[in-house]
Each structure stands twice: as structure tokens, then as C-alpha cells.
Write a sequence for this structure.
């Protein structure tokens, strides 16, 4: 029996150690918000957080994730879609087909967690996710909106489950 802490809950399941985390999340745990795009760490559709850091879960084997680490998927980013980034996404109606967008949001949320005021270069370096619908301009605009609308770190993300960088767990 395997155990992982996912979205704040301890979850038990059976899977081979070399199973990519993406497939554990989707197939074993039913968390299908995380998408499969390329399978080779290129597109970012499968982005989730491990201990707050963005990872491309299609290339992370189950054996590389410790039971004590906190895995967060799009389903756990906030309880009601109230994360700062999700709110900006809704306001600017960012998605087109939507397939890439959970990975995009998770990548942006991780960036703003460590760099609440990212430079253009920071954004270009961190957000390398591919969107086949070409929503890049709206993604950039929504990142700007999220940055502008963020107040003090405390409480800015509504029901954000992940603690802000440097805060107590
Ligand atoms: S599916 Fe993981 S990066 Fe494309
Ligand atoms: S919104 Fe369709 S792939 Fe990005």
C-alpha cells in the first residue's frame, strides 16, 4: 500500500513505484484536473506542487515522492476556486479550450508564491507551459492582474491551502 499527502489529506492506493505521479493522481486518486499533454516534461499540462514547488508530474515517479511531502493539485489549490490566480483567470476569461490551464494556473501560483512581484524575465523563465490555443497574451495579462490585486501576503489568496513562503506550516 502506498501513501501520499495530497491536497491536505493522506491518501492510500496501490501502484508500482515507477508509476508517474500524474497517473497516480488521475488513475488511482481520481484527480483528473491535472492533464496529460506530452509526457516528457515539455508542455506543463501536468504541473502540480510538491512542497510548494512546481513539478511536471508526468516525469516524477511515485518513488521520488515522500509520504511527508505535500502534493497539491488544481483541486486543492483553493477550496472554492478563490486563489488569487484563479480569480484573475476568471476575471479575464483566460481559457479557450482549457486543457492546458490547470497546469498554467499551478505554475503561476507557484511563481507568485516565491516571487509576488515577478519581473517579465521571471515570468518568461518560470512559465514555459505550452498552450495550443495561444492564450499567452491573456495569461500574461492575468498574471499582471493577480500581481496588482494582491495585497498583503496574509489572506490574499482567500482559502489558499498552501502556506505563503516563509510562513508557519
Ligand atoms: S504532460 Fe507533463 S509536461 Fe507535458
Ligand atoms: S486553452 Fe486550449 S490548450 Fe491552452
Amino acid at each position: 500500500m502506498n501513501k501520499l499527502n495530497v491536497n491536505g489529506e493522506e491518501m492510500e492506493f496501490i501502484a508500482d513505484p515507477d508509476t508517474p505521479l500524474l497517473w497516480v493522481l488521475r488513475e488511482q486518486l481520481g484527480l483528473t484536473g491535472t492533464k496529460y499533454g506530452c509526457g516528457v516534461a515539455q508542455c506543463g499540462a501536468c504541473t502540480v506542487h510538491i512542497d510548494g514547488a512546481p513539478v511536471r508530474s508526468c516525469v516524477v515517479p511515485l518513488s521520488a515522492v515522500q509520504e511527508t511531502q505535500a502534493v497539491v493539485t488544481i483541486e486543492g489549490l483553493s477550496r472554492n476556486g478563490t486563489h488569487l490566480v484563479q480569480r484573475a483567470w476568471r476575471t479575464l476569461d483566460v481559457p479557450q479550450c482549457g486543457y492546458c490551464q490547470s497546469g498554467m494556473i499551478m505554475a503561476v501560483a507557484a511563481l507568485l508564491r516565491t516571487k509576488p512581484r515577478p519581473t517579465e524575465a521571471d515570468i518568461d523563465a518560470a512559465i514555459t507551459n505550452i498552450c495550443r490555443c495561444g492564450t499567452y497574451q491573456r495569461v500574461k495579462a492575468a498574471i499582471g492582474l493577480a500581481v496588482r490585486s494582491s495585497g498583503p501576503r496574509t489572506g490574499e489568496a482567500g482559502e489558499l491551502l498552501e502556506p505563503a513562503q516563509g510562513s508557519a506550516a
The beta strands are 2-6, 9-13, 47-50, 53-56, 70-72. Helices lie at 21-28, 84-91, 101-114, 120-126, 136-149. The longest strand covers residues 2-6.
